[in-house]
């Protein structure tokens, strides 16, 4: 029988991913700071524990799917800084910092495989890998592309960085949750690929939103315009699979008041990562930088917890409609 897999972070993405591990016959030992997030998974057979430390004690393969992981490397201290809600929770329990990985790393057993699917800075992944190595464990970055729908259908794309000898062990688990698993080279390279993808996604989404809005202002029916774009050279994922205009498609956040999906805060975070890496490598990213600013402004105007396709609504409000 299969040995248990640990899972930390049961949010929009983590929850459906962990479900797919269960479906594939892996016992799952899971945790999240929000007990509500664990309930659903527990009901379908996961073992829910109170802390990442307990996950680390009981599993020797652990996946993390968290908003972000800030790694202050004093000894082996690391700290996850989460969404606004988690921050509120943190202050309410008066934990000094959010001790997730700190505890996880303290308790991690020798030989443990840590797979982090959060989108974080490639440099942080490399630091995590160095810290894991000191503990006799292996850390790989395996950020994903695809969104909540793809996570539910096990159709994610995983971009994996880390020691090649460990790749097969990671791949065995990742194929239960994704349709494409791509080895990108050394640790951090998965993140590099992911950050590039999301920068293009952000630019594409803003472009789609402003294009759709212009068309509507010119009197076009949004469904018709989307149909035309999607059979023409303007087609992109944001126009075709994740259209930001309410009423154009079903089953996407724009059809549901921009709830669920990929939060604007998370997109702003990813663009911040893109900006950091671009600054460090002296790479010009004029549109990436502008996209970063647009999503950051949205965060301070009430869009933080809405799906990032709400940039359409933001543009409409900006023009006073
Ligand atoms: P989310 O905010 O919905 O989920 C994160 C979960 O982590 C929450 O349930 C939160 O309670 C939990 N958490 C935070 N700190 C914790 C801690 N210290 N201990 C235990 N649990 C903790 O975020 P998400 O949309 O699932 O995204 C997760 C990651 O995946 C992010 O890095 C994001 O950028 C990336 N990502 C998201 C999508 C998407 O479409 N949502 C797509 C690709 C990649």
UniProtKB/TrEMBL annotation:
<keyword id="KW-0520">NAD</keyword>
<dbReference type="GO" id="GO:0051287">
    <property type="term" value="F:NAD binding"/>
</dbReference>
<feature type="domain" description="6-phosphogluconate dehydrogenase NADP-binding">
    <location>
        <begin position="102"/>
        <end position="185"/>
    </location>
</feature>
<protein>
    <recommendedName>
        <fullName>3-hydroxyisobutyrate dehydrogenase</fullName>
        <ecNumber>1.1.1.31</ecNumber>
    </recommendedName>
</protein>
<dbReference type="Pfam" id="PF14833">
    <property type="entry name" value="NAD_binding_11"/>
</dbReference>
<dbReference type="InterPro" id="IPR013328">
    <property type="entry name" value="6PGD_dom2"/>
</dbReference>
<feature type="domain" description="6-phosphogluconate dehydrogenase NADP-binding">
    <location>
        <begin position="5"/>
        <end position="68"/>
    </location>
</feature>
<dbReference type="GO" id="GO:0050661">
    <property type="term" value="F:NADP binding"/>
</dbReference>
<dbReference type="InterPro" id="IPR029154">
    <property type="entry name" value="HIBADH-like_NADP-bd"/>
</dbReference>
<dbReference type="InterPro" id="IPR008927">
    <property type="entry name" value="6-PGluconate_DH-like_C_sf"/>
</dbReference>
<dbReference type="InterPro" id="IPR006115">
    <property type="entry name" value="6PGDH_NADP-bd"/>
</dbReference>
<dbReference type="InterPro" id="IPR036291">
    <property type="entry name" value="NAD(P)-bd_dom_sf"/>
</dbReference>
<dbReference type="GO" id="GO:0008442">
    <property type="term" value="F:3-hydroxyisobutyrate dehydrogenase activity"/>
</dbReference>
<comment type="similarity">
    <text>Belongs to the HIBADH-related family. 3-hydroxyisobutyrate dehydrogenase subfamily.</text>
</comment>
<dbReference type="Pfam" id="PF03446">
    <property type="entry name" value="NAD_binding_2"/>
</dbReference>
<dbReference type="GO" id="GO:0005739">
    <property type="term" value="C:mitochondrion"/>
</dbReference>
<feature type="domain" description="3-hydroxyisobutyrate dehydrogenase-like NAD-binding">
    <location>
        <begin position="188"/>
        <end position="314"/>
    </location>
</feature>
<keyword id="KW-0101">Branched-chain amino acid catabolism</keyword>
<comment type="pathway">
    <text>Amino-acid degradation; L-valine degradation.</text>
</comment>
<dbReference type="InterPro" id="IPR002204">
    <property type="entry name" value="3-OH-isobutyrate_DH-rel_CS"/>
</dbReference>
<dbReference type="InterPro" id="IPR015815">
    <property type="entry name" value="HIBADH-related"/>
</dbReference>
<dbReference type="InterPro" id="IPR011548">
    <property type="entry name" value="HIBADH"/>
</dbReference>
<feature type="active site">
    <location>
        <position position="194"/>
    </location>
</feature>
<keyword id="KW-0560">Oxidoreductase</keyword>
<dbReference type="GO" id="GO:0006574">
    <property type="term" value="P:L-valine catabolic process"/>
</dbReference>
């Amino acid at each position: 029988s299969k040995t248990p897999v640990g899972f930390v972070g049961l949010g929009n993405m983590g929850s459906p991913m962990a479900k797919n591990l269960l479906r594939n016959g892996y016992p799952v030992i899971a945790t999240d700071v929000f007990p509500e997030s664990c309930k659903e998974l527990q009901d379908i057979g996961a073992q829910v524990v109170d802390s990442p430390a307990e996950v680390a004690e009981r599993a020797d393969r652990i996946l993390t799917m968290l908003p972000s992981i800030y790694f202050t490397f004093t000894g082996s201290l690391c700290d996850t800084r989460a969404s606004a809600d988690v921050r509120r929770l943190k202050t309410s329990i008066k934990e000094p910092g959010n001790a997730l990985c700190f505890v996880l790393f303290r308790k991690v057993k020798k030989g443990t495989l840590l797979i982090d699917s959060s989108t974080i800075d490639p440099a942080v992944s490399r630091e995590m890998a160095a810290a894991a190595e000191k503990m006799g464990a292996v850390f790989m970055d395996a950020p994903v592309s695809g969104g909540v729908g793809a996570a539910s259908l096990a159709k994610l794309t995983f971009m994996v960085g880390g020691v090649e000898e460990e790749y097969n062990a990671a791949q065995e688990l990742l194929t239960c949750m994704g349709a494409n698993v791509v080895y990108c080279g050394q640790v951090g390279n998965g993140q590099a690929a992911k950050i590039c993808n999301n920068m293009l996604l952000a630019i594409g989404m803003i472009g789609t939103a402003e294009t759709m809005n212009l068309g509507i202002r010119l009197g076009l029916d949004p469904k018709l315009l989307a149909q035309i774009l999607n059979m023409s050279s303007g087609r992109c994922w944001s126009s075709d699979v994740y259209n930001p205009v309410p009423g154009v498609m079903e089953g996407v956040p724009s059809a549901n008041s921009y709830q669920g999906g990929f939060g604007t805060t998370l997109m702003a975070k990813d663009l911040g990562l893109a900006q950091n890496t671009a600054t460090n490598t002296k790479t010009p990213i004029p549109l990436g930088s502008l996209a970063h600013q647009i999503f950051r402004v949205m965060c301070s105007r009430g869009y933080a917890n809405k799906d990032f396709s709400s940039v359409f609504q933001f543009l409409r409000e900006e023009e006073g409609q």
